[in-house]
Amino acid sequence: MTASQSPSLLGRIVSIVAAEQTYRNLAYLFLRFPLGIAYFTLFFTGIVLGIVLLPLLVGVPILIGVLVAADYAGVIEARIADGLLGVDVDWTPTDPSALSVTEYAKTIVATPRNYGLVAYFLAQFVVGVILFIALTTGLIIPLALLVAPLVFWIPGVRYQFLGGDGSMITLGPMEVENSLSTGGFDMVLIDTAPEALVASVVGAVVLLVALHVFNGVASVLGWLAVGLFDAGDQNR
After folding, report:
1. Is the CA virtual torsion 20, 24, 29, 34 positive or negative?
2. Which are the contacts of 231, defined by CB distance < 8 A and separation ≥ 6?
3. CB atoms closer than 10 angstroms to residue 46
4. Local structure of residue 154 (DSSP, 8 states)
5. In degrees rounded to 5, what are phi and psi of residue 162?
6. What pLDDT shows up at residue 166?
7. What is the distance of C-alpha 50 from the center of its chain?
8. Does residue 89 contact residue 82 with C-beta atoms inside 8 Å?
């Protein structure tokens, strides 16, 4: 029974590489960075400008505009999550055509979820930066190790690990470096075919682990999106 289950388990672990949803998840995670910058620029600027101009009363419509922007940005976020993560989320903004300007402004201000959306969009900047660093590190390094048998012999390619000055991978014009000192560890330089094969196996394992971790992170973010947007629609 164990023998028959092992290939199935191995298959589930490895099949993540061929799964379309894996790359949809990665696309969603990578989008957190540019979208996070855009959201932070829009909402942080709007909030600061609105607060500064509050004494002149101009800040009031600006702050209301921030909430309106969050209301409509929720539509974009819900569609991205639905399209890439495959989660069932929907967000319907308050319809301004069904209300007077005053009633619309009151509704926007009195809707608690709009404030939650503003906080969510501001947090996307931090989330995006962390994910960008994690994705580039977690994908580039194992991929560089994976192709080691094909490129280690090429002039200008250098794999150096655990040296006193840290670890470094140089692939022609591209260089990935970890400047953290490793103390008393001796330097490992990959410059033979057997070493390159071992590095390739290590890269494959690390890549599989990274993909599973990123899929898990995407699932958590999808769960949060469902909780935020669906609950927001119910509270309208």
Report:
1. positive
2. 113
3. 21
4. S
5. 60, 25
6. 53
7. 29
8. yes
